[in-house]
């Protein structure tokens, strides 16, 4: 897997990551969502450099401008619910992308510290020969990414696969690196050291879905 950890190069991205982590600033849910969206825009911009480009001529009022434009058929798939603001950020740049949504949540059936990933909702166009971008802001154990990719398989074989995440734990990064094809790209804004016994990334930021959209009752 090609791992692109964007925080290795200091940039304005660090400001947005620092704000979503900050226990005071993150309480402003509108700012939290907007920061995730801005991070999505930056990750999308970096990812765009790896796409395929073709020559293009643009007629201006005064002449012809020659450039290259990407030609990929992109399907942008986000994991509900925390993936929604990240999806919006990516869609701001890949505005012609087709879109897919998939739900994945942790079900704590027997013990608060053990859970399984439940995939219930899935809306997806054909993925055959397309560029699939699979986005989820948190990559903790990596089980949600792997379970959702598995659920997408009946929709066709993508030409290339890009995973997008905001904060990952090293364990989750290692797990997806093992489970996905070696040609897969991971574009990630920060990689943290550990996961606690409840599956939260440390230091992480807490629960991204709750911070974006409010608390939910456990089923
Ligand atoms: O890498 P994993 O260990 O699978 O954990 C990451 C998943 O956990 C969070 O979702 P959550 O279950 O909290 O659902 P939510 O988005 O509805 O809050 C997050 O948005 C990821 O989907
Ligand atoms: O730290 C974590 C792990 C999973 N999901 C979150 O929202 N945060
Ligand atoms: Mg959550």
TrEMBL record:
Q: What EC number(s) does this enzyme carry?
A: 2.4.2.9
Stated name of the protein: Uracil phosphoribosyltransferase
Q: Name one GO molecular function term.
A: uracil phosphoribosyltransferase activity
Q: Which InterPro entries match?
A: PRTase-like (IPR029057), PRTase_dom (IPR000836), PyrR_bifunctional (IPR050137)
Q: Which UniProt keywords apply?
A: Allosteric enzyme, Glycosyltransferase, GTP-binding, Nucleotide-binding, Transferase
The UniProt record lists the Phosphoribosyltransferase domain at 13-214
Query: What does the record give as its pathway?
Result: Pyrimidine metabolism; UMP biosynthesis via salvage pathway; UMP from uracil: step 1/1
Q: Which cofactor does it need?
A: Mg(2+)
Query: Does this entry carry the keyword Transmembrane?
Result: no
* Record flagged with keyword Oxidoreductase: no
What family does the entry list?
Belongs to the UPRTase family.
Task of the protein: Catalyzes the conversion of uracil and 5-phospho-alpha-D-ribose 1-diphosphate (PRPP) to UMP and diphosphate.
Gene name in the database record: upp
Q: Give the matching Pfam families.
A: UPRTase
Class in the EC hierarchy, top level: transferase
Q: Which reaction does it catalyse?
A: UMP + diphosphate = 5-phospho-alpha-D-ribose 1-diphosphate + uracil
